[in-house]
Each structure stands twice: as C-alpha cells, then as structure tokens.
Amino acid sequence: MTASLARIRFVLVETTHTGNIGAVARAMKTMGLSRLELVAPKHPPDAEALARASGADDLLERAGLHASLPDALAGCRLVIGASARLRTIEWPLLEPSACARQLLDEAAEDDVALVFGRESSGLSNVELARCHALVHIPTNPDFSSLNLAAAAQVLAYEIRRVAREERGERLLDPPRELATADEMEGFHGHLAETLLAIGFGDPAQSHKLMRRLRRLFNRARPDRVEMNILRGILSAAQGRKRAGRATRDEGESS
C-alpha cells in the first residue's frame, strides 16, 4: 500500500490562498499521501500555510513548484481531474470510490495524478483536456460548493479506504472475554431472585418478564467484566433490601 500511495500526486493549480495549500498537505498526510505538486500558486507556501498544515510541514518543504500543468504531470500514466460541477463536454466521470480504485490500480505500476483547480473557477477546459477522467463528489445540489481542502480530504480518505479494503484491513474491536453460557445462566437466576426480593413486577407473570430480560441480555452479549458489574449491582440491591428489612424488624421489636 505504501508504495502505491507514494506514487499518487495531488496537483494544485494556481491556488490563491496559501492556507488552502497547508490544509491540503494536512489532509494528504493524515491519509498517508506525500506527493504535493503546486502549479503557479499566487503565493508560495508561507506562515499561514505552515499553520494550516498542522504538522505536515515536510510535505510543504518537499512540494514541487511548477510553472505549468504539463510540468507537474510529467511521467504520469493516469491523470484524473477533480470537478465541482458536471460538465457539458463529455469526459469519463468517476465517483470518488471508483477514482480511488483506478488511481491505486495504476499507481502499482507508475506515477498517477489527481488534479485540483482554482478555488474560484476550477480547471479550465484546456486543463481538463489533459485528464483521462474526472472525479465528482456528489454533494447537495442546492449547495454544492466544497472548499479545496475539504474536497482533497474526501478524495484522500477514499484512496486510503480503498487501499485498506484491498489489503483486507479493517477496524477491530478490542478482544473481549465473553461471559460463558453457565455464567449467563447464573446471572439470570440471580436477576430473577433479586427482582422477587425487591418486589419488582407481578410474581404470577415473572416468567414472561424473565423471557424478555433474557433476550435483552443475550443480545447484549456481556463480557466477564460487565457480568461482574451486573452481578455486583444485583448483590448491592439485595443487600440494601436485607438492611432495610433488618431496620424495620429492630424498630418493631423495640
């Protein structure tokens, strides 16, 4: 995965605000991407860019600075342009996930590029003509404008998500030692005993209540630590009930 990610270039064309350059660097680094290329930015990365990079300073320091888009794309076998709007000219159009998959597939062989246009007007038709396909993030049609860094973050995340999926990686819950069947039975018996002791519910209908409670706790599948907590609560409830009864008995005897 690391080798393929290292061959994916994020190319920013004539970026106006240096803060956006820093924010894109941050978005890239959080997703394991490292190749940032700048085409004729209005200003080179400055203090604001460093501040917005929030620790991705190394990407800014290594970023390529190019006079033209062809220079930034030199050696790339695949170029995909990010477009905020659907174009009347027909280009192959990709969803973010399909874009990520194609970039990763071809990055296994050589460099590829994802190109972002100007904050105000995006990519020109001449620049789009250099792209093999476009990627469009399906936003709310009534308010479809995404900040440059936000769009970069969405696409960077998709690239990492697809890369992890292809490697079979997934988030795993911490290991839990689940309560055994006999421990669950002991708990259900303790629960029934406690409910009876505190006078909860109708004793004549207790079997219906216990069936529902069994289903509830069986769905939850408590682990052994949680089971100990539940048993402790029941024991405390029984203890308070016994203490209350003893106090009443003492009062009556006196």
Automatic annotation (TrEMBL):
One of its GO terms (cellular component) is cytosol. It holds the Pfam family SpoU_methylase. Its main location: cytoplasm. It is found in: Cytoplasm. The keyword Acetylation does not apply. Gene3D superfamilies: 1.10.8.590, 3.40.1280.10. The keyword Zinc does not apply. This is tRNA (cytidine/uridine-2'-O-)-methyltransferase TrmJ. Keywords: Cytoplasm, Methyltransferase, S-adenosyl-L-methionine, Transferase, tRNA processing. Residues 8-157 form the tRNA/rRNA methyltransferase SpoU type domain. The gene is trmJ. Belongs to the class IV-like SAM-binding methyltransferase superfamily. RNA methyltransferase TrmH family. It catalyses: cytidine(32) in tRNA + S-adenosyl-L-methionine = 2'-O-methylcytidine(32) in tRNA + S-adenosyl-L-homocysteine + H(+); uridine(32) in tRNA + S-adenosyl-L-methionine = 2'-O-methyluridine(32) in tRNA + S-adenosyl-L-homocysteine + H(+).
